[in-house]
């Protein structure tokens, strides 16, 4: 016996239909990097991981992420079991969400509802971050990064 299930996918209209440059999924939240370097998010926000300034436990269909500077974001990083997210810019790296074990590298264990600058001096040269529910790893380089050279998952 073969059972056929049908699933319907909802198409989201995000940021005035701007092209999406990259997508990243955490444990229960997703993030979108648009071609204008703005960031959007959707999903659970129980520990502030959407970065919109709230920690409303209700799921959100869409939230604009509040990056605290005019620096252009060129990469978003999270991990499959993570409730934290990192936004890598040309000059700084920012983290938001779960931080009960110093996962964000900001010098405290308070959860962050808006992206907060990572304190490590090496954060300026980060090009890859992977976070889990309890820790974070990062790779860095000594040279300047050209974000246009980064491959994306977007077609």
Key features of this structure:
single chain, 155 residues, mainly beta, four-stranded antiparallel beta sheet, 0% helix, globular, disordered C terminus
Structure described in brief:
By secondary structure, this protein is an all-beta fold. It has strands at residues 20-25, 29-34, 39-43, 60-64, 73-77, 84-89, 93-97, 112-117, 126-131, 136-140. 0% of the residues lie in helices and 35% in strands.
| Sheet with most strands: strand arrangement | 1-2-3-4
Instruction: Let me know the largest β-sheet.
Output: 4 strands, antiparallel
The computed structural class is mainly beta
Radius of gyration: 16 Å
Q: N- to C-terminal separation?
A: 38 Å
Anisotropy-based shape: globular
**Helix content range of the residues, please?**
under 10%
Number of distinct beta strands: 10
Question: What's the mean pLDDT score?
Answer: 78
Strand content: 35-45%
Query: Secondary-structure element sequence?
Result: EEEEEEEEEE
Poorly predicted regions are 150-155
Enumerate how many helices there are, as a single number.
Answer: 0
Describe the protein:
The strands form three sheets. The protein has a four-stranded antiparallel beta sheet with strand order 1-2-3-4, with no helix packed on it. A four-stranded antiparallel beta sheet has the order 5-6-7-8, with no helix packed on it. Strands 9-10 form a two-stranded antiparallel sheet. The radius of gyration is 16 Å and the shape is globular. Strand 5 and strand 6 (84-89) form a beta hairpin. 0% of the residues lie in helices and 35% in strands. By secondary structure, the chain is mainly β. The protein has strands spanning 20-25, 29-34, 39-43, 60-64, 73-77, 84-89, 93-97, 112-117, 126-131, 136-140.
